[in-house]
Fold this sequence. Notes:
ten-stranded mixed beta sheet
Amino acid sequence: MRIQINYLAKYLLLTFIVLLLTACSSKDISKNAKYSDKYRLVWNANPMTSMTIAWNQYEGEPSLYYGLDKAVTKRILPYRTTRYRGMHNQFVKLENLKANSRYYFKVCTNQKCSELMYFKTAPLDDRAFTFIAGGDSRSIPRGRIRGNILISKIRPLFIAHGGDYTKDGTADEWARWLDEWQQTKSSDGRMYPLLVTHGNHENRDAQMLNKLFDVPNVDVYSKIDFNFLSLYTLNTELEYGVGYYDMVSKEKWKKHKKWDEQTSWLKKTLQQESKKWKVISYHRPLRPHKKSKAEGRLRYLDWSPLFYKHGVQLAIECDSHLVKYTYPLKPDLFAEEGFVIDKEKGTTFIGEGSWGAPTRSNDDNKSWTLDSGSFWQFKLITAMPNRLEIRTVKFGDEDEEYDAHKVEELSQKEQDKNPLSIPKNLDLWNSKVGEVLYLKE
């Protein structure tokens, strides 16, 4: 009898311990549960008064809290959700914000909240600002991660991404890309908005960027106005023939309704343009600096005259996975590949991608090429009312090691004091014109 009692006591004690451990384990899981991740900011409207915040939600009903101080007392619910590429994407649209202001935010679910983050709205006055322009971040994660870390050091007002985010746009690729994008966040929690461009590696779904970034125009072309600068985003992939073939004439591929609509929009919008600086971003170059890349004949015929006539000073191109600056150019059908140098009124073309995609040789320079190269990079552009300063930030290649952490992070206090500040120890391309390419009004 005593043996049975001892056995029962041991059994009850063991059962109690197991239940206690299970309860503690459940409590820990609940405490550390991951309700949301993959945070990203997008400017789809007025950058001085609005911001789109997106994230992936695992479970529960989320709310976003935001405000001008860390108390974040204002609450807003997602206005749109999409189940896409293995994620439950949530979109909040903040409006009626104050220009040139710091806004804090966090995502909360079941009384569990994300870390506190913040962004800055664009200035309304003639205050200078910096932004990043680059693309082709696909294929080699360590390349794009280097660039992502550099963003956290540089503190740009925004990033104009030129397309080809991933290789195939699969669920696994986008999950990894968005997880790695969190490395753009600065040490004090500041995040940076994207202006997104559709590249050819997004062609598997024409509405991919709408579903992931809430781009209001599903055809992904638009204009965003800053204080003294307008940034146009165009889509080189609107139709099959335009994106993939060397367009000789419209008759060859018959109908180009969407393409013609975009060109008509560009013409009309440029005619009404009032900003001092006009910058255009798109994926495929008009004249690639890689021999294996087909010339963009239709893009050249339809766009370059509009660029020149309406005073577009800068065109940002991607796709070829190399580096280039051109002289300011004027279209001329009888000149080499359709351009002549016009330093007074011409458009400067820079590019061409190379943010982690396999680098390619710059084997197709022209007489009007200012300089070119081959390495991983993006452009750091400082915008001022009287000039643009363009720097190419290098971060190695497939064979060259590079430590992005060696760059000294610019503090928010330093940037607020001097908007022209850039971090120490950036590896800048020393081109034929030096480390800075100047465009003056």
